[in-house]
User: Fold this.
Amino acid sequence: GTPAFLPPEMALGESDVDARADLYALGCVAWWLLTGSYVFEGNTPMAQIIAHARHEPGRVSEFTELEVPPELDQLIAECLSKTKDQRPADARLMEARLAAIELDRPWTQRRAERWWRAHEG
Assistant:
């Protein structure tokens, strides 16, 4: 229930929360790893929670200097869907889709170190 990673259905107190809530949170983690910021910022934890329930995040590719493959951009957008039926059905499907994404520039230790220096807060 961390405010920065809370799926809309939990923010709204819905009773039919399932494993797709975890895929929403995973989309939030992916966003953070690619941008160095949360999907939704807020002055208070409650403001973040409300944003998860009400606001659309846009595409991660619009908020990072990194090149994001279109397939990854789409997958993260699906994970962050307000409607859980539009998210990947389960973690195995998510894993298969991630494995199928080809990277032009693999992530290396050197690139990671530069990224962290640029995004240390």
Observations:
- The chain has a mean pLDDT of 93.
- The CA atoms of residues 50 and 60 lie 20 Å apart.
